[in-house]
TrEMBL record:
It comes from Parambassis ranga (Indian glassy fish). CDD domains: CRBN_C_like (cd15777). Residues 1-28 form the signal peptide. It comes from the Eukaryota. Transmembrane segments: none annotated. Keywords: Signal. InterPro entries: CULT (IPR034750). Residues 46-176 form the CULT domain. This is Protein cereblon homolog.
Amino acid sequence: MRCERRLQLERLTMQFITFLLLVYSAAYQTVEPCATVGQEGGTSTDTLILCRACGQELAFGRDMNFIPSRLALSSRNDTSVGGRRVNVQLFENPHGHRFEVITFRKADVALHWPADKHFSWFPGFSWTVATCPRCAAHLGWAFQPSTWPDTITKTKFEESEHTFLALITHRLLREDFASSLLMTPKSFVS
Ligand SMILES: [Zn+2]
């Protein structure tokens, strides 16, 4: 009986070790593609920027346009969202919530007029909330000259060179990064 129990214990230990090996190798394979993407960084302006919540296509890398604000708490370069180096600014709202944003010339987002002139992060500009047109997630804010009427048409906003958007960095996703997560692991390819 004792001998049988020891054998059983040994078998269990072996099963546990095999399980651990499988888990570790699987984890290593998952991490690898991400690291490769991070190192390459990419310079393509064709990189699609997606809504992190639902995958909706929002903009291209080339739509990013750095608009510095003296009200930003800090400003830094980042390559994880845009592919190329983009400037990320940190802002704080009146409730003490902080947001890291990237400014875009344009993006396919839903805007919610009327615009508000108060507490604007960009002096001289009024803001409206910008949400995802598919899943309605809050993605950031749109800015228009504060001399404009509070409510304007979408066409006027899109056609003007004086309007821009500030989208929250961690609510966005790069398409090539998303694809790398969905890639079939090499071990499953026959
Ligand atoms: Zn979405």
